Amino acid sequence: MRTGVRLGVDVGTARVGVARSDPHGMLATPVETLARRDDVVAGIRRLVDEHSAIEIVVGLPIALSGAETASTGDARAVAGTIADALGVPVRLVDERLTTVSAARGLREAGRTSKNSRSVVDQAAAVILLQHALDLERASGNPPGALVEPHESRPAE
Predict the structure, then answer these.
(1) Most exposed: 3, 15, 58, 121, by fewest CB within 10 Å?
(2) What is the mean pLDDT of each run of 10 residues along the chain (156 residues)?
(3) What are the structural domains of the chain?
(4) What gap in Å lies between CA 17 and CA 135, rounded to an integer?
(5) Whole-prediction pTM
(6) Cα–Cα distance, 156 to 99 (Å, whole number)
């Protein structure tokens, strides 16, 4: 298992949830929710600097059937923009059902959907990042697919 803090990023249409790992890559914890209307890349840059992150794991929302959706394209675009701007490795990891699992967990903890909006994205990022950490620990390989800078940009 590689050492160093990783950030988990759950891209939503209105908000982006961010989680971080401990330096040993054992446990994911919530960090922050960024509004999409703000400069998300600047927010992630700040968090990378603040936590000395070695890698960013972005959730790739794939339909249960395995098909790509509009959200899949959006996540790829955000991951590509982050890879272009930050110079930190960015990996895309399948995130099927992370937001559903996060919302269910918050409901079971007694939170309503209205008072959970600000944290559900962070909880989804925690689930995503913990899954990625567990995959790496089990396989010995970094999880998901590495995003090459400019990968998600349309051809000019």
Answers:
(1) 3
(2) 94 94 96 93 97 96 80 92 95 75 61 63 90 93 90 45
(3) 6-145 (3.30.420.140)
(4) 20
(5) 0.85
(6) 34
